[in-house]
Amino acid sequence: MRNHNSSDDFLFHEGAWFATSSEWRKKLLQEIEKIDGNELLNSSTSDLATYYATKFSLSVPVLYADDITVNQKEVQIDVSNDKGRYFSHNSGPYYIAGTCIEVEVPFSGDAISFKIQPTTQNYNNPRASIGDSTLHFSISGVNLTSEYVKSGIEKKIASINEHLQWLERDAKDYNKGLINVATQAIEQRKQKLLKDQNLVAGLGFKMKARSSSSETYSAPKVRRTIKTEIPKPVGSRQPFKPEPTLLTADYEHILSVLENMVRVMEQSPGAFQKIDEESLRTHFLVQLNGHFMGDATGETFNFEGKTDISIKVDGKNIFIGECKFWTGEKGYLETIDQVLSYLSWRDTKAAILVFNRNKDFSGVVEKIFEFTKKHTRFKNLIKQYSETSCSYLFAHKDDSNREVVITVQAYNVSERVGPRLRTTD
C-alpha cells in the first residue's frame, strides 16, 4: 500500500505574521488619512473606529471536522519509486490503477489565514487547496483501507488545527489593539483639522473654499474651566460646524460632585428625611455652583421635557443630570430616552443617578448593566468607575453620528432618607 498526496499548496507558508500584520495596520492608517475632512469631522469616532478595526481584523478559521465530506475516484498512480517493487534502472514511470479519496473540510473565518506563517512553526506545513469556505486535500494510493484513510484525514486536520492555534495566539493581541489604533488615528486627524480651521480663522482673511465654516470654540469659562460586517459610517461632507464640548476632566469632576452629595445623604439620612423634590435638586445645584460658575439650573425646559440638573451653552444643554428611583426595566429605559431627548449638541454628556429602595441592591445593579445594553441607541461601554458606576456611549436619537456619554450611578438609600424624587414610571 502506498499513500500519495496530491499537489496541493503548502499552508501557512507565504507571509510572516509580523510583516503581514504591520502592513494591515499601515493600510488602516492610510484609509483614515484619505477620508474627506468634513466627512471625518461629521462622523462618529467610535463608529468609524469600530468599522476599521473590524475591517482589518483577522478572523482565524475554525474547521468543522464533523461536516467533512469525501469523494472517491479511480486514478493512475506511479509506483516506479515503490521500494517494494522491482524496476530496471531509469525505466521511467510505471502506472497502475489506484484510488483517490478527495476530502472537503468546511471552515468559517478568513481564508487568507491559511497563507500566513505564525510566529510559532514546526517546519512541517500541511498541504491543501484553499476555497472560500472549504479546504480540499486528497489521499491516494493502491489498496487503501478505511482505517488508513481515516487516520490520514485525522492527522491532516490535527496539523492544520495546530497551526491555526498558533495563529490565533498571534491574532489575539493584534485584533484587540486595532480599536485603539483606529481611535487614536481618527482623533489625531480630527484635532489637526480643527487646529487648521482655527489657524485660518486667526489670519483674519476670508477662506474661499470654506466661507461657511465656523471657528471651533469651547464652552464658556467656569470656576473650574469647562472647555470645549459592519457598514462604513458615512458622515456629511457639508462644512463641519464646530460646537461646544464638555471635556472629560470636567465631566468627571461633575460626577464626583454629584457622588459626594449622595454620600452626604447616605451618611446623614435624618437631615433629608422631610425634604421635598425641589429642595433636593437645590442641594445638588448649590454644590455644582460651588465648583462651576452660574449656569447649572433646576427644572430647565428643553425640547420635549424638563430635567433635574443642567448646564447650558447658548441656550442648549451641554450637561444634564437626572435623579430617579429604581422601578424596573421599562422606567429605566424610558429615562434614557428622556435624557437623549434633552441633548442637542454633538458629543454632549449626561448622568443618571438611580436611587434604590429595594433590599436586593446587588440585583438592581446587575439589572442596570443588563438593561442599558438593551437600549436601541446603546453603542458601547466606555468606562467602569466602580461596581455601581459606569459610563456608556449612546447614539443621538436623530443622528447616529452624534454621540452622548451617559454615566449611570446607582445608590442604595433607605426609606428613612425620604425625599420624593420623580420615579421612572
Tag the structure with descriptive keywords.
single chain; 425 residues; alpha+beta; 2 domains; 18 strands; disordered C terminus
Explain briefly what this protein structure is.
The protein is α+β, with helices and mostly antiparallel strands. The chain is 36% helix and 25% strand.
Order of helices and strands: EEEHHHEEEEEEHHHEEEEEHEHEEE
**Can you tell me the overall shape?**
elongated
Weakly predicted, low-confidence segments: 1-7, 204-228, 298-304, 416-425
Radius of gyration: 32 Å
Strand content: 25-35%
Q: Structural class, from secondary structure content? A: alpha+beta
Main sheet record: 7 strands, antiparallel
Query: What helical percentage do the residues reach?
Result: 25-40%
Distance between the termini: 79 Å
Total strand segments: 18
How would you describe the oligomerization state of the chains in this entry?
single chain
Q: Number of folding domains? A: 2
Q: Count the helices. How many?
A: 8
Mean pLDDT, nearest integer?
78
